[in-house]
Amino acid sequence: MIKFFLRLFIPAIGLLAFEACAGQSVDKNYADHCASCHGAGRLGGSGPALLPENLARLRRPEAFKVIAEGRTASQMAGFSDKLGKEEIQALADLIYQPLPAVPVWGANEIITSYLQHVPAGSLPDKPVFDADPLNLFVVVELGDHHATILDGDKFEPIYRFPTRYALHGGPKFSPDGRFVYFASRDGWVSKFDIYNLKVVAEVRAGINTRNLAVSGDGKTVLVGNYLPHTLVLLDAADLSLIKVIPAEGLNGKSSRVSAVYQAEPRGSFIAALKDVKEVWEIPYATKDFPVRRIAVDNYLDDFFFDQSYRHLIGAARDGKKGQVVDLDSGTKTAEIDLPGMPHLGSGITWAYQGRPVMATPNLKEALVSVIDMTTWQTIKQIKTIGPGFFMRSHENTPYAWTDGFSSNSQASRDAMTLIDKRTLEIVKVLRPMPGKTAAHVEFTRDGKYALVSIWENDGALIVYDAATLKEVKRLPMNKPSGKYNVYNKITHSAGTSH
Questions:
Q1: Which of 123, 147, 253, 395 is most buried by its number of CB atoms within 10 A?
Q2: What is the pLDDT of residue 17?
Q3: Residues 86-91: what's their mean pLDDT?
Q4: What is the pLDDT of residues 427-482, one digit of tens each?
């Protein structure tokens, strides 16, 4: 009888030991390969939170594929060369397991996190430097989490300071260009006084944050979160909390926020929900910030506005067509033929043969789509060296610049393609630093110079004469992800994102 029970229980004990070992293995694999980007507790970091409530649109077989092969148009690398199929499946299963408790981050937590470094309004109203305050660049250096204030005339750094971890979504400016607001992936919002080169206030608006927007009147900041599913309104003067709005559809479904923007001509914020087919308009001069809900045909993972901000052009990550929404009427007015995966958030506009056109790079296909904004028909698909991420121009240059940042080939990632806006033909391919990733062009306020990022830890900013295309200067930088010209941003230049 004793032998019988031993034969019965020893395999069971072995199975339990195996399961415990497997659990330790998946935890170790997560810690080794995932935690640095997605957070030790799966709450997000430089990458999004990996929780069931944030994965509603990603089916489990697709999750396995993403872990194995990586994901287009993201920093997500594949791990099939490091992990076996069983290990990848275990990770895919893990991210769909709910946490015992998801941390709460509501009004009380936001208020408690608040840090006032300098009392609002206590600093001088005159810059402490001699450079033109409207021709400055704010350069985000992701390599060591710093930002540099750069003189756009002399191309010399004025001040370099540490930022919060993994800034995302691009900094936003006050209407006069004096203040810049940063949002980090882990939810921290910082207000920096450019005139006095000081951080004046900070607050943690969420656990995993998408981006922020500053109202056209300079009074309010709106923050969109992946976790929790909220929109957070802050007073732009001191970053004190105004209101928390749950991101829920009419059907009660909770949703991440794809992105938030300010639409100054409309006096409102625009927010898109990632898991609900709605876009929200929130007037910022109206008491209590009421939400106007606009139903859309598909999810809006990425979107773009015409210069009047009447039309919103949106696309889903897995969609086949773009949709044009008339924000005045709240209805879809057109579909756009956008193959692959357009990056509308990096779209630009200009006048072509007397017609307003928009152009967008593509994260999946080696092309740039040029669209007539009167008929919403495709004028041309311009073939490029590789899939791109950023596209930029300026009213005073005939060229649009686009990169090959989304390409899997370094032979494309080190190239900048220049398109003549008058002929829609490629006129030049530059390789600023052969073998190194080139990305994100931004122009000086007059459009005479173009600055290119070398997106490497031992990278640089390379300054080009925008007319002759000759290199003017090279400044060493630590993975400069983006640089933002104060004047071009606050005047909503047609050549840059808003």
A1: 147
A2: 37
A3: 84
A4: 999 999 999 999 999 999 999 999 999 999 999 999 999 999 999 999 999 999 89
pLDDT tens, 300-320?
888 889 989 999 998 887 667
140, part of any domain: yes
d(CA 487, CA 496): 11
Which tokens go with 321? Answer: 């067509």
pLDDT tens readout for residues 241-251: 999 999 999 99
Q: Which DSSP symbol is given to 442?
A: E
The number of helices, as runs of H, and strands, as runs of E, in the chain is: 7, 33
CA distances from 259 to 51, 132, 272, 331, 442 (A): 19, 31, 6, 20, 21
| Averaged pLDDT of the chain | 89
What's the pLDDT score for residue 8? Answer: 33
Looking at the structure, tell me whether residues 82 and 132 fall in a common domain: no
CA dihedral 293, 496, 216, 230 (to 10 degrees): 40
Tell me the one-letter amino acid at 237: A
Instruction: Of 106, 123, 115, 107, give the one whose Cα is nearest residue 202.
Output: 115
Other CB atoms within 10 Å distance of the CB of residue 8: 9
72, pLDDT greater than 70: no
Q: Write the CATH number for 74.
A: 1.10.760.10
Whether 217 is covered by a domain: the verdict is yes
Residue 388's domain comprises 127-280+343-490
Are both 67 and 177 inside the same structural domain? no
C-alpha closest to that of 418 among 363, 375, 465, 486: 465
Please, which residues have CB within 8 angstroms of residue 435's CB and are 6 or more apart in sequence?
A: 410, 414
Q: Are residues 239 and 360 in the same domain?
A: yes
Whether residue 380 sits in one domain with residue 254: yes
Residue type, 115: L
DSSP 154: T
User: Do 369 and 456 belong to one domain?
Assistant: yes
Rounded to whole angstroms, how far apart are CA atoms 351 and 353? 7
Sheet holding 348-352, edge to edge: 348-352, 355-361, 367-372, 378-383
Q: Is residue 286 part of a domain?
A: no
- Asked whether the predicted pLDDT for residue 46 surpasses 90, the reply is no
Q: Is the pTM of this model over 0.70?
A: yes
User: How many domains does the chain divide into?
Assistant: 2
- Assign 469 to helix, strand or coil: coil
The answer on 232 and 379 residing in a single domain is: yes
If pLDDT is split at 50, 70 and 90, which confidence band does 371 have? very high
Residue 103: phi and psi, rounded to 5, are -55, 140
First to last CA, the chain: 78
DSSP 184: B
CA atoms of 114 and 201, how far apart (whole Å): 8
Extract the runs of DSSP E, i.e. beta strands, from 152-216. 156-162, 172-173, 179-183, 188-193, 198-204, 208-214
